[in-house]
Specification:
Strand order of the largest sheet: 3-2-1-4-5-6-7-8
Radius of gyration: 21 Å
CATH class of the largest domain: Alpha Beta
Distance between the termini: 37 Å
Order of helices and strands: EHEHEEHEHEEHEHHHHHH
Number of strands: 8
CATH architecture of the largest domain: 3-Layer(aba) Sandwich
Number of helices: 11
Number of domains: 2
Bound molecules: NADP nicotinamide-adenine-dinucleotide phosphate
Amino acid sequence: MVKKSKLGFVGAGNMGKALIEGLLGELSPEQITAADLRSEALESLMALGVQTSTNAIDAVKRQDLVILGLKPQVAGPVLQELAMHFSPKQTVVSMMAGVSTARIEELLPENVPVVRVMPQTLVRLKEAACALCAGRSAGAEQMSLVRSLFEIVGTTVEVSEGQMDAVTGLSGSGPAWAYMVIEAMADGGVRTGLPRDIALKLAAQTLIGAGRQVLESGEHPAVLKDQVTSPGGTTAAGLHKLEEKGLRDALISAVQAAAERSAELGQS
Ligand SMILES: NC(=O)c1ccc[n+]([C@@H]2O[C@H](COP(=O)([O-])OP(=O)(O)OC[C@H]3O[C@@H](n4cnc5c(N)ncnc54)[C@H](OP(=O)(O)O)[C@@H]3O)[C@@H](O)[C@H]2O)c1
């Protein structure tokens, strides 16, 4: 179904562009219209064959899915101006952090289905972890359409809107935690004598492999950890150090702090 849909992007900055680039290959460029105020932001998309416009109306009119890649601060005025061009036959997908489906619905004509997503720019690599939640008028058909779109670019889950701040804290901000873990592991490698490039390659691939193992085996990570920890061995010595230094506590606190900040920003 999504392969036959027409997609309009209102806002093709970092996030919008990353999603378009991740979708191309599975979707054809002729299916996509990207609108942004900055023509220079559209140049690379134009080179990929995507239809581009500096007028957001072109990304709304006659599109099946309208994907909002705007900054939250401009959502109100921009959607007010575009409102008359939306129809309940379309599905609106908002990637805007902290903007509720109710707020978007308020700005659009009645009964326009809205689906909110918390994506990652990792969509470009088709390795993103995305979460969706349905607005008031979005039913199973719209959710399945949007889900199939985001499954092209990674793993997708459905949550309730009340869980969106937690999602923002975990997978929204999570790539930054992972980059820090990779950097620190590589620093450890350098500290113990490895060249930087080799240390980084080993650290990054270790996280990719471990993540895939968790997803593909379906095993609890604690079971997998026990499987690679031999009595009195090197890993046991390292794990003891991580417990002593509070790695788990640090990561749990980071997710919680980011989720709280997301809730705070959503109020303002
Ligand atoms: N970047 C991420 O990692 C990430 C992750 C998850 C969610 N998000 C969400 O994705 C959304 C976009 O973030 P971003 O990082 O892509 O921001 P961005 O790079 O600033 O992109 C937003 C784009 O929208 C354009 N724009 C503003 N008004 C417009 C209008 N009336 N019509 C068409 N285009 C318009 C902006 O142009 P001007 O610059 O000229 O205003 C800008 O190029 C945000 O709501 C953010 O919360 C981002």
